[in-house]
C-alpha cells in the first residue's frame, strides 16, 4: 500500500481502502450472511446452549474416573443435572422446530444419517441452505478443497475455514451415513477402494451429503436416491 510506518491512523486508512475494494466485488451480496429472523434466532440460541451443555457433560464424565472416590458423588450429581437440562433444551428445541420449521425439518430428517441435532444446527446456522450453488455452499461450510499451487508446484488440496459447528454436525451424519445411507455408503466405499485415505473419503462424504441437502431444499423435493447422480 506504500506505507512504511504503522500507526492507528494508518491502519484505519488501510482498512477503509480494503473495505472499498471489497464493496466493489460484483458478487459481494452473495457472501453476506443474512440476518436471521426471530424464530431462527431463538433456535440458534437453543442450539448454542445445547452445544455448551454437551461440552460440560463430556467434561464431567471425563473427570469421573481420574477423580478421588470422594468426588464421585458430586460429579454424578452434576452429570444428572446436566442430563436433565439437556433433555429440557432438546424438548423445547423439538417443539420450536415443529412449530416454525416443520416442512424443512421433515425434508432434512428423511435423509438417513441426518438426525434431529444435525437438523437443528442446519436450520439455525445455515439460513443460506437451498439458496446457493453446490460449490458455494461447500465453501461456506468449509468442506470445499482449496488449491495450493504456484508455478509448476502442485500443492495438496485442503479444506479449512467455514462454519466449524456445522461441519462437526455434518461429520457425525456422514459417519452414520457411511453405514446406513446407501448413497453415502457406496460413495465412501468407492473412494476408499480407489486408494483415498479414510479421512479424505469421509470429508468428501460430508461435502456430498451437504450438496444433496442443499439441492433438496433448493427444489423443495423429498429425499430421492437419484440425487447422487448430480451431487458431488
UniProtKB/TrEMBL annotation:
Transmembrane segments: none annotated. Residues 106-188 form the Transposase IS116/IS110/IS902 C-terminal domain. GO terms for biological process: DNA transposition. InterPro entries: Transpos_IS110 (IPR047650), Transposase_20 (IPR003346). Pfam families: Transposase_20 (PF02371). One of its GO terms (molecular function) is DNA binding. Coiled coil: none annotated. PANTHER family: TRANSPOSASE, TRANSPOSASE FOR INSERTION SEQUENCE ELEMENT IS1111A. This is Transposase. It comes from Kosakonia arachidis. The lineage of its organism: Bacteria, Pseudomonadati, Pseudomonadota, Gammaproteobacteria, Enterobacterales.
Amino acid at each position: 500500500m506504500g506505507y512504511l510506518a504503522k500507526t492507528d491512523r494508518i491502519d484505519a486508512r488501510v482498512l477503509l481502502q480494503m473495505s472499498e475494494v471489497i464493496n466493489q466485488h460484483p458478487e459481494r451480496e452473495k457472501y453476506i450472511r443474512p440476518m436471521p429472523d426471530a424464530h431462527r434466532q431463538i433456535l440458534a440460541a437453543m442450539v448454542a446452549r445445547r452445544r455448551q451443555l454437551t461440552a460440560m457433560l463430556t467434561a464431567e464424565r471425563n473427570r469421573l474416573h481420574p477423580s478421588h472416590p470422594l468426588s464421585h458423588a458430586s460429579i454424578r450429581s452434576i452429570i444428572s443435572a446436566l442430563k436433565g437440562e439437556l433433555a429440557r433444551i432438546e424438548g423445547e428445541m423439538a417443539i420450536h422446530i415443529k412449530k416454525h420449521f416443520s416442512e424443512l425439518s421433515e425434508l432434512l430428517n428423511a435423509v438417513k444419517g441426518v438426525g434431529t441435532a444435525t437438523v437443528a444446527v442446519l436450520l439455525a446456522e445455515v439460513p443460506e441452505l437451498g439458496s446457493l450453488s453446490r460449490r458455494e455452499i461447500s465453501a461456506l461450510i468449509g468442506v470445499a478443497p482449496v488449491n495450493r499451487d504456484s508455478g509448476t508446484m502442485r500443492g495438496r488440496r485442503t479444506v479449512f475455514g467455514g462454519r466449524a459447528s456445522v461441519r462437526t454436525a455434518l461429520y457425525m451424519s456422514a459417519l452414520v451415513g457411511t453405514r446406513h445411507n446407501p448413497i453415502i455408503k457406496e460413495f465412501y466405499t468407492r473412494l476408499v477402494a480407489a486408494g483415498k485415505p479414510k479421512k479424505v473419503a469421509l470429508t468428501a462424504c460430508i461435502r456430498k451429503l451437504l450438496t444433496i441437502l442443499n439441492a433438496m431444499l433448493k427444489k423443495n423435493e423429498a429425499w430421492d436416491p437419484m440425487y447422487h447422480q448430480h451431487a458431488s
